[in-house]
């Protein structure tokens, strides 16, 4: 197989770019890691025998990378072995002869497949949404949770045309507004905020729906309205044993309706009369009610999109407060040439600029999402028996420009760059 660049990957998505469990590895031939590297196919060849004539026990071994897996408290150079579509083991110095194919990950980071817990990928159904595979598997992200693009009235399309067809694994948070996102959906006709419709849709579409999305403005003037909407979301979430993700608010009456497992998103909103952030109107001081969230078991999700103000994020980082998960809020307006989000890896790099380590940012896109949601598949971990989703990346050093949602620039010196992805045991290559 010739080199598969990112552009070639996108053009050929659904065909040769996403390969069988051996990926592009020749039987018995080691794949060479490195920029732009792609192994040669060996389709039709018979598998080699190992020592003593035995058939190799693993389909693929990813060797010599720094494995970061917070679920197993691993952060060291090790090998990852895959059999079929599952992780078989993580160990040091797995013999190459034990595998049908070997990928050299020396000098790279090896983690569970990245999980973006907040995106908008109802491409073709919602005008702002983007194709999941463009911002997912092609960028090192193996799973995306679509956060409210679809509601009860149009979820069938999201399931049929995105969830069931994308190579990237897609789950949904169902919008409590029946028509989905994003036309101020909960502030129009009150009949379109329907708990019963949400319950019926979730029950008919398990396991694809993980919870309810409530896209409030977060303004005090809307409090009475927002409480009634959140009560309907609470009814639906409780009836289906799922969770609520809600846009940021500091209103005690709203936060009181949240339960352990629920999620508040967008803590670093730019200061505005039309939104709130974790500091309220007093820069440099986190509101006391925000500091109670963790003790109450309420998760916080970053979700970039139009919701990053560097002064807010920097002040928060200085105080040692970071959201539980890093996510993108990705849609068409957030990617080049006009957007500043780019992808999950770039968003992780912005948190490295804010002071988090590589291990910490990896935890916030693997192990933390695994805890946040009841995924029906075992993802977010390299534990044996987990789905064989693996992201291989480089941490590059240099001078990198990072922008917040108002296009205010900061300069960072590390960038997290995925270079190869394994999805359910299938290897995908592209050029960085």
Topology:
Elements (H helix, E strand, L loop, with lengths): L5 H6 L17 E3 L26 E12 L4 E10 L2 E6 L7 E6 L4 E4 L1 E6 L12 H4 L5 E11 L3 H9 L5 E7 L19 H10 L4 E6 L8 H18 L2 E5 L4 H4 L7 E3 L22 H4 L1 H4 L2 E3 L8 H9 L25 H10 L4 H6 L3 H6 L17 E14 L5 E15 L2 E4 L3
Order of helices and strands: HEEEEEEEHEHEHEHEHEHHEHHHHEEE
Count of spatially separate domains: 2
Query: Would you tell me which CATH topology of the largest domain applies?
Result: TIM Barrel
Rg is 22 Å
Residue-averaged pLDDT, rounded?
Answer: 88
CATH architecture of the largest domain: Alpha-Beta Barrel
How many separate helices?
Answer: 12
Number of strands: 16
Distance between the termini: 18 Å
Strand content: 25-35%
CATH class of the largest domain equals: Alpha Beta
Q: How is the main sheet built? A: 9 strands, mixed
* Inertia-based shape: globular
Structural class: alpha/beta
Indicate the low-confidence ranges by residue numbers.
Answer: 1-52
* CATH superfamily placement of the largest domain: Metal-dependent hydrolases
Q: Estimate percent helicity.
A: 10-25%
């Amino acid at each position: 197989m010739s080199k598969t660049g990112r552009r070639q990957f996108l053009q050929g998505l659904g065909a040769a770019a996403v390969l069988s469990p051996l990926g592009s590895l020749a039987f018995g031939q080691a794949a060479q890691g490195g920029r732009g590297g792609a192994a040669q196919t060996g389709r039709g060849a018979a598998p080699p025998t190992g020592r003593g004539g035995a058939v190799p026990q693993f389909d693929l071994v990813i060797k010599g990378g720094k494995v970061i897996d917070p679920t197993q408290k691993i952060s060291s150079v090790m090998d990852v072995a895959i059999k079929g579509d599952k992780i078989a083991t993580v160990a040091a110095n797995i013999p190459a002869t034990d595998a049908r194919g070997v990928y050299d990950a020396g000098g790279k980071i090896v983690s569970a497949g990245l999980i973006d817990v907040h995106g908008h990928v109802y491409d073709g159904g919602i005008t702002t949404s983007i194709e999941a595979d463009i911002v997912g598997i092609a960028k090192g992200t193996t799973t995306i949770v679509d956060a409210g693009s679809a509601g009860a009235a149009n979820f069938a399309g999201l399931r049929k045309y995105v969830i069931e067809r994308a190579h990237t694994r897609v789950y949904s948070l169902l919008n409590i507004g029946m028509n989905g996102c994003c036309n101020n959906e909960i502030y129009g006709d009150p009949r379109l905020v329907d708990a019963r419709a949400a319950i019926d849709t979730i029950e008919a579409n398990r396991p694809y729906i993980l919870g309810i999305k409530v896209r409030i403005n977060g303004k005090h003037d809307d409090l009475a309205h927002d409480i009634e909407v959140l009560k309907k979301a609470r009814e639906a979430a409780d009836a289906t044993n799922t969770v609520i993700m809600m846009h940021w608010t500091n209103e005690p009456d709203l936060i009181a309706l949240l339960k352990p497992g629920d999620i508040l998103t967008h803590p670093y909103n730019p200061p505005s009369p039309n939104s709130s952030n974790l500091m309220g109107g007093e820069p440099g001081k986190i509101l006391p009610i925000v500091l109670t969230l963790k003790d109450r078991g309420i998760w916080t999700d970053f979700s970039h999109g139009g919701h990053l103000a560097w002064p807010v994020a920097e002040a928060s980082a200085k105080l040692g407060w970071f959201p539980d998960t890093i996510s993108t809020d990705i849609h068409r307006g957030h990617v080049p040439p006009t957007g500043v989000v780019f992808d999950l890896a770039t968003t992780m790099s912005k948190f490295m600029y804010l002071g988090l380590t590589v291990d910490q940012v990896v935890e916030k896109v693997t192990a933390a999402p695994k805890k946040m949601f009841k995924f029906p598949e075992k993802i977010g971990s390299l534990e044996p028996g987990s789905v064989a989703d693996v992201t291989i990346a480089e941490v590059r050093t240099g001078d990198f420009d990072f922008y917040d949602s108002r296009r205010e620039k900061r300069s960072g010196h590390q960038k997290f760059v995925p270079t190869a992805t394994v999805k359910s045991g299938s290897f995908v290559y592209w050029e960085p």
